[in-house]
Design brief:
six-stranded mixed beta sheet, ROK_cs (chains A, B), homodimer, five-stranded mixed beta sheet, alpha/beta, ROK (chains A, B), disordered C terminus, Transcriptional regulator (chains A, B), binds zinc ion, Arc Repressor Mutant, subunit A, 13 helices, 3 domains, 38% helix
Amino acid sequence: MTLISADGTILRMPRSEPTALTLLRRTHEAQVVELLRRLGALSRAELGRRTGLSRTALSSITGSLIGRGVVVTAPAAPARGTRGRGRPVDLLRLNPAIGRCAGVDLGRGRVRAVVSNAAHEIIGSESRPYPRRTSWEERTAIALELLDTVLGGGSDGLEGIGIGLYGPVGPATERASAAVRLFGERYGVPVLVDNNTRLAALAEAVHGAGAGTRHSVYVRLSHGVGGGLVVDGRLLRGASGAAGEIGHVPADPRGPRCHCGGRGCLELYASLPAVEAAGGLGDDAAVERAGRLTGQVLAGLCNTLDPELIVVGGELAGCGERLLAPLEAELRARALPAVRQGLRITAERLGDSGGALGAIALVRQESPAPRLARQPYPAAAGTGCTGPVVSG
Amino acid sequence: MTLISADGTILRMPRSEPTALTLLRRTHEAQVVELLRRLGALSRAELGRRTGLSRTALSSITGSLIGRGVVVTAPAAPARGTRGRGRPVDLLRLNPAIGRCAGVDLGRGRVRAVVSNAAHEIIGSESRPYPRRTSWEERTAIALELLDTVLGGGSDGLEGIGIGLYGPVGPATERASAAVRLFGERYGVPVLVDNNTRLAALAEAVHGAGAGTRHSVYVRLSHGVGGGLVVDGRLLRGASGAAGEIGHVPADPRGPRCHCGGRGCLELYASLPAVEAAGGLGDDAAVERAGRLTGQVLAGLCNTLDPELIVVGGELAGCGERLLAPLEAELRARALPAVRQGLRITAERLGDSGGALGAIALVRQESPAPRLARQPYPAAAGTGCTGPVVSG
Ligand SMILES: [Zn+2]
Ligand SMILES: [Zn+2]
């Protein structure tokens, strides 16, 4: 298409490039799709407010998206007390049959695969335990089998796969590259990999205890002590991919040597084995000490990071107030007034599913070009994602 | 302007809105300006690579920018060994006479004002001490006077002002709002305010010891112990604006009470008064202890944040290796292998000017709509900046 301005000038566009108007319309469409993708279901009025598009422009865009099956409409539940007065308002949402995302958590003792649709509904979830001595090849084979099951035998409408791995995951982690290759070749979609505890931090921040927060710290008290930091809504990975290792901050700088090389690391006092050695999860004093020292380490971290929320997860979080009360007391006694004032401390909500749900959240957050928004156009050059390890 | 497509359809654009082509061209212009603004001077080839624009499109855009005086050309120094062979390559840069940015550091004991031009050259810098008992009104009056002097009597071509304040600076800090009002009304440009130690962290990350890094930690050992975190190239502020308070991370959890309410905070061992009480800056043991405990606290922080660089500033950094060697030894002994592997530790480069230079860096980084790119167009609605405290 050649554009001619009203004054007669011919504005040539190179044949292979889209016209300016097409580009602008694409941008607006992508905005609408991105909002529905992030927020689930919205009314036309809400979409108008959030995009700033005129009613006419928005109506043309939503009309086209509905026509192409990318967006569907559903009547909203009537507001209380309106009882039939006024027209029912239609909500727009992404077609649940497209825009699927998969999350796979390859944990130490089990694999979990979860698939959600574009409307953010979980449409399948399976988990299978394996013995700790299971090889990497066997683990990934089980994961692929499980994902096939949850996907229902096909990768139609699949946007991407997020994978959580136990242990450190950085740009140079071999298992990460192997997973990207394996899953990317099998399903032909972008694959993003991260540490599964860090992904649980993201899942809690997006869907769980921290929904609506921008800055949160997740600490997981389990066989080891790990965690994840969400800064300004995004996962902090660090220079080598090791960010979040709260377990190796010293709780007692003169304490015993830790396997990491440090001294008196939090993991030596607040992990499951440490609490079991000190009396077990039923022993109030052992749990109290774990909570207190976790609170102490978190105080230092909070004074530097100034988060709005601490989410405590892992088996120890199951001790409830016996753990959380001393943790919170110690944290509040040691944190700066400005820092503790707005700070909330809570147990995790998503439990065992956090890693897989966080893997999905990672794909939805970092995969920059959702296929469903691209669908009616020729494929864009390159499918670069911003995650740590990626294939297209 | 009404656009008519080649097939005769009239594509109406609302009168008050710019056309799609204008919008697209603005986006491309803004890209070019933003690249030159961030990177200083670039060849046309380099601009083409970085923007992805065709040679024709780029030439039309740079031609217009040069015509409007936004961009100027200058021959690049000939490469070694080419001695006159080939055409000399012109570099494009922003016109140094426009796009000025001011940084003001309202410190405890002195004010500093620095002005840089669009080519990132410092074109003026002044500082003036004041007694510690000087009132807020007097301090700001001195700052305004100093800034007038450095600006050379006019705010022509001024893009914005960054202001560094001592003490905690968050969204609710009254002094910050007062400074925004005062400087905003006087100069009629966007004003961004942040804590001056945090701004020094940004300055070191952008122009100083950390130039080229994405993740760095700045620690300032002075009358107090403070710092700043740069995560993915941006300053971390935290939920209440308190992020970076490294001085109140415990170095000895069972140590004496600190004024902050905590126990055994780093500031009790590694601040200037603490070292002076323990023997002074000339006393090797006192300096060594400060370095060692700073390294210990940084190890915990690094294990969670995984930065690539630690920058040490403040009066104690002047002790050089007597401080840095024990700091680095302790840090490396306690940090996780993955974390310490890529980690570099160095003294600050910008010294006393860090706060003011960081204030400029903040304006260049966070002020989203540089005036010089907007110049030929009607003023955009709103001048919202993303900094913590802002006025237009
Ligand atoms: Zn350790
Ligand atoms: Zn303190």
